[in-house]
Amino acid sequence: MFRFLVALTSFLLLCDPSRAQSELMIRDGFADADVFPFEMLADQSGQVEFHNLPQDGAAWQAASAANLNLGYTHVSYWLRFRITQQTEQLKHVFLEVSYPLHDRLEIHIPDSQGRYKRTLVGDSFPFDERPIRNTRFLFELDLSEVTGKDIYVNFRSGSSMRIGMRIYSPASLLERNQLETAAFFLFYGTMAAMILYNVLLYISIREQTYIYYVFYIFSHTLFQMSLNGHLLQFIIPMFPTLASAMIPTLVGTASIGVSLFTRSFLETATYIPRTDLALKICWMAGVVLIVLNFFLPYAVIIPLANLLPFYFSLVCFVSGVLRLRQGYKPAGIYVTAFAAFFSGVMLAAALTFGLVPNTILTEYGAQIGSTIEVITLSIALASKINSERKIRYEAQKKALALALEKEHSYEQISKLLYPHQLTLIQKGEPIERTMPTGLDTACVLSFDVIGSSKVKNEGFNDLFEEFMADCRELMMRGYDGQTFTSNGYMIKEMGDGFLCSVGFPMSQLGHSKSECAVELAREIISRFALLNEKLDGPTPIYCCIGVAMGQVRSYFSKSGSIKYDLWGTGIVLATRYESIRKELVQKLKLNPSNLLIIQEDVYHSLPSDIRKEFQVHALQDLGIMVRDHPEATMLVFKQIYNPSTSVDLAS
């Protein structure tokens, strides 16, 4: 009885019985207009059919506004209006009913003979049964047939009763659809991007808060798709009943997701336990709503589903404010996000209950607020991670300061870091700021012992360790921690080989990276020759060095123990040039010797007197290809013999 009185009162307020029916004029230059004026007939029983409609004016009431919002009601409404054609420019127009959640929409359109064609659509019917495939209900009108005749529309809905119709010219409808498609594409694209972005962050960081956030965004996006009619259009077009029934379920899942996210993000159980209880009630209410959706009628459950977002938005907003007052900085961004979302939810719910007029801001308030919220919450998550990282940095500073107070600890750390790194760490800098990071060009040397697995000489391991110590000393030559300068930088040691760079991350001592790299390679081979003399074995041991120029990126690892590392094309190419030594020896039948193989880019940047020392062969003539360097055309190398080798050095 109460619901009937509310519906009757709303109808009487929104209708003006003193107005006589008039017509909507379609003139030259017409683009679009609301269907207004029109007349209304309230069918309290929902049993009045088209052929039983009264034709006398006394039973019909003139509407006082083009867009009416009657809230939740079971009353069925009949509307009638007329269109008069006063132009030859338009032959057809389109009638649009914009609200996509009407359960049943029945329209009767006259033809040229005065006979009426009945079309039945709604979100309780399969999407493919619509005359025009669109989330809004569209009907094509032939102006020559409908001009001056009544058009009848019947509205029935188990949810909010929003009455509003609009007439479009074909060009105007196309323009509107393009703009709306772009807007929804931007909205759904933003949601999809945020879901993917936060999934990747979860995989990288393993922070559970991100999974709760993804669950919330996913549920909320599907909820918006249901409200906008896109769930029925694109995902389940043949199951209209399921599309409607999913709305309360998705509200419940969104409530669960946002409460779990808020509890994790704001750490409410630890810092605001009373508010944490309200958040627990929030996700439990979501579970109850999902369960009740299986038992209660849609008309009963949908008002509860519209009230729940009010509750969880308010609780989340208050939780953020309380944590912000406690000095938790990420909570400020969180509060901003939920203020935007809460505003959008309030506008959408107020529109649903008929408290505000239907405008662009009220109709799309939820989408606008959601977009702002999702982006802002992602920023809040980043702020939270940075805040936690800063706390870890502070802890690292204190722990390192205590360790450096002990002489033994200092000595051990000095074996792992450059002197300037220790100095910077003592001054309070995190280890991530003690070495250059980024992308630059370097000359990379890849060193390997030829046939090391076959070396049986006793004492080789000890002598090789002495050789490696000599190599480290060679690279540290000219080291200056203020200018980040040295002869070379040891990238990685690998058993019987290593990788080092010249020019980055430590600047070279000379003007040319290539010249400095070749000179360093010569010295390394010279030191290796001394190893042979000390070993004094029956069979000499040789080495090979590949030198290549390319981009190298330096970085600190972001997971596990923090390490400084380098990677890039320069490193890959250096190893590729070193690895072609077997083909080189086989193709040219070279005598056993140490080999220095350099990339042609390195070769061309050397002074002419140094270039004369190298042999140059066309790769095509040799039938050799350099992996990962398809543009290479030349193979440049030099044989360097051990001093005790009897082979003529000039050969």
Structural shape = elongated
Distance from N terminus to C terminus (CA atoms, Å) equals 112 Å
**Helical content, roughly?**
40-55%
Low-confidence stretches: 1-21, 646-651
Alpha carbon gyration radius: 39 Å
Mean pLDDT: 84
Decide which structural class fits the backbone. alpha+beta
Relative strand content? 15-25%
Number of helical elements: 21
User: How many domain modules?
Assistant: 3
Tell how many strands the DSSP assignment holds. Answer: 21
How would you describe the overall organization of this protein?
There is one protein chain. The protein is an alpha+beta fold and 651 residues long. The protein has 3 domains: 2-168, Immunoglobulin-like (Sandwich); 181-388; 436-640, Alpha-Beta Plaits, CATH 3.30.70. Helix content is 48%, strand content 20%. The longest helix has 40 residues, at 365-404. It is elongated.
What is the strand and helix layout of this fold?
Layout: H1 2-14, E1 15-16, E2 24-27, E3 32-34, E4 39-43, E5 61-63, E6 67-72, E7 76-86, E8 92-97, E9 104-110, E10 116-121, E11 137-142, H2 143-146, E12 150-156, E13 160-168, H3 170-205, H4 208-228, H5 230-235, H6 240-266, H7 268-271, H8 273-292, H9 298-325, H10 330-352, H11 360-363, H12 365-404, H13 407-414, H14 419-426, E14 438-449, H15 460-476, E15 489-494, E16 497-502, H16 513-535, E17 543-556, E18 564-567, H17 569-579, H18 581-588, E19 594-598, H19 600-604, H20 608-611, E20 615-618, H21 619-622, E21 634-640
Parallel strand pairs: 2-7, 17-19
Antiparallel strand pairs: 1-5, 3-13, 4-5, 4-7, 6-13, 7-12, 8-11, 8-13, 9-10, 9-12, 14-16, 14-17, 15-16, 17-18, 19-21, 20-21
